[in-house]
Each structure stands twice: as C-alpha cells, then as structure tokens.
Amino acid sequence: MARGLRQGVNNKESPVSSTVATVFERAAISGDDTTLVLGGLAEIVVAEQEEASRRMEADQRFKEKCAAIWVAHIKDD
Length: 77
Fold this sequence. Notes:
Layout: H1 2-8, H2 18-30, H3 33-76
C-alpha cells in the first residue's frame, strides 16, 4: 500500500492541498508509512470535500436557472 501511495505523491492530477502534499512528500522521503497512510486518507477527504462543494454549486446554479425560467413563464401568463 505504501508503495502505491509513494507513487501518488507526484501525481499532478490528484486533487490535494499543498499542505497535505508537503506532509505526504516528507513522509515519502523519510519512509514513514503511517504518515503516508494518513496522507493518503487526507487526500481522499480533501477530494471528497471538493466534489461535494462542486455538486452543491451545480445544484445551486440549476435551482437558479429553474427559478429564472419559472419567473419568466409566470410573467408571460
């Protein structure tokens, strides 16, 4: 597991904060598997939070568009 995590440190596509990345890189250099596992878990949490935020923003935009369409429909009647 740690080997895969070490390889993920340099993965630029991974959505990870700079703080987590720094801790993750230091752990990879020192060979601290516990920190690598925790860093991997932190990366997952950050990615999930970012995804939840994107979904909430998309839902909000959808609701705003629906409201605008509904208002325009009501005005025309």
